[in-house]
Specification:
24% strand, single chain, 35% helix, Double Stranded RNA Binding Domain, 4 strands, elongated, four-stranded mixed beta sheet, 203 residues, alpha+beta
Length: 203
């Protein structure tokens, strides 16, 4: 097969192989620093996970720069949301037993008195934008962006399970922070993403 004929044959294949998503802004070669401008939540680990999600996404796209120079993505972690889902009565939470009857003050039943949520909805809200130089304007503002998760509670009796719920909550907040960071970075890079997240939507 001659050279021209070979190129004519392979040309469409190369074109197909090159297909894929492209960022809206078309400047993926630009390397961006990542800076936490402020955090209004007490959970420093969750804030760090937001930054980690942003950095991981930039690194994946070949757009991450080390340090805190310019141009950079400035991040504000604005709010942590938490709410109860499916409140259970004491008898339901304890599998049909009556709490506090015939037990000492330190018993598991006493510790479990009162209604308890079957699950806790946890979420984070943050925003980010691109600043190209010191004192520069805020570009590609993401607006308030939210990520969330639903953490199931262990309704069996026993004090150690309360501690287990606390660990599950912390893990969920870290996961939410990481996913939120990914979505912020994708927005700044121009990769389509939703500005809000609800139960049953993207994870």
């Amino acid at each position: 097969m001659r050279g021209r004929e070979l190129l004519r044959f392979l040309g469409p294949l190369f074109a197909v192989a090159a297909c894929g998503y492209h960022t809206v802004y078309g400047d993926s070669a630009e390397h961006l620093h990542v800076v936490l401008l402020r955090s209004l939540i007490p959970d420093a680990v969750a804030s760090d996970e937001v930054l980690s999600g942003v950095r991981e996404t930039l690194a994946r796209e070949g757009s991450l720069a080390a340090g805190e120079g310019y141009p950079r993505i400035e991040i504000e972690v604005l709010r942590a949301d938490e709410g109860s889902e499916g409140i259970a009565a004491p008898s339901t939470a304890l599998g049909g037993s009556v709490s506090g009857v015939g037990s000492g003050s330190g018993s598991a039943a006493t510790l479990m008195q009162g209604p308890r949520a079957r699950a806790t909805e946890v979420g984070l809200v943050a925003r980010a934008c691109l600043v190209r130089q010191k004192g520069g304007t805020c570009e590609r503002d993401t607006g308030d962006t939210r990520a969330m998760d639903l953490v199931a509670s262990d309704l069996s009796a026993g004090a150690p399970l309360v501690t287990a719920d606390l660990f599950h909550h912390r893990d969920a907040m870290r996961d939410v922070g990481r996913r939120l960071g990914v979505r912020l970075a994708e927005h700044v890079l121009g990769i389509p993403t939703a500005s809000d997240e609800s139960i049953g939507r993207e994870r």
